[in-house]
Amino acid sequence: MDALEVANDSRSTRAKLKRDLKAGEVRARDILLRPIPKTLRTMKVITLLEAVPSLGTTKAAMILRHARVAPEAQLGNLSRRERTGLLLDARSRFPNLDL
């Protein structure tokens, strides 16, 4: 595959993931607790969180700040501990949120 095909594949995978998150077919925890697929490694964590229903820009930024994760952090750069901490922090702050 050439670079253009890889980039297009990554974009379409991210777009599908965001649609599935908004529709409730996939949960953010399913993405964060499993090994990150190659096509999603460069996706920003804030983009993933903002796609979750009832979790907007402000709440997503608050979760990242309290979990001490940079807003520009990419999924592929987070350690397992950081991803788990992010979920635990989000659940403690927003118990009714279905991540």
Describe the protein.
The protein is mostly helical. The protein has one domain (3-93): Helicase, Ruva Protein, domain 3 (Orthogonal Bundle), CATH 1.10.8. It contains 5 helices and no strands. The longest helix is centred in the first third of the chain and has 21 residues, at 3-23. The model has no long low-confidence stretch (mean pLDDT 91).
Structure summary:
This protein is an all-alpha fold. The chain has one domain (3-93): Orthogonal Bundle (Helicase, Ruva Protein, domain 3), CATH 1.10.8.
Mean pLDDT: 91
Tally of individual domains: 1
**CATH class category label:** Mainly Alpha
Cα end-to-end separation: 34 Å
Low-confidence stretches: none
Given helix and strand content, the structural type is mainly alpha
**Largest sheet composition:** none
What is the level-2 CATH architecture name? Orthogonal Bundle
- The arrangement of helices and strands along the chain is HHHHH
CATH topology: Helicase, Ruva Protein, domain 3
Share of residues in helices: 55-70%
Strand content: under 5%
Q: What is the number of beta strands? A: 0
